[in-house]
Amino acid sequence: MNENEIAKIIFDLGLRVHRTLGPGLLESAYEECLFYEIRN
């Protein structure tokens, strides 16, 4: 797996988290959810 593939996975997960939670939360909330998604 190269850098571009890893970046695409992380970007897609970040977009999924943002779409699920919506706008307006603190960055720390998005960060925790993104970390959870990356781990799983």
Which key features would you list for this structure?
0% strand; 80% helix; 40 residues; elongated; mainly alpha
Structure commentary:
The protein is an all-alpha fold and 40 residues long. It has one domain. It is built from 2 helices and no strands. The chain has helices spanning 3-21, 27-39. α1 crosses α2 (27-39). The model has no long low-confidence stretch (mean pLDDT 96).
What percent of residues are in strands? under 5%
Number of strands: 0
Distance between the termini: 17 Å
How many discrete structural domains?
A: 1
Secondary structure layout plus pairing:
Blueprint: H1 3-21, H2 27-39
Helix pairs in contact: 1-2
Q: Could you give a quick summary of the protein structure above?
A:
The chain is an all-alpha fold and 40 residues long. It is built from two helices and no strands.
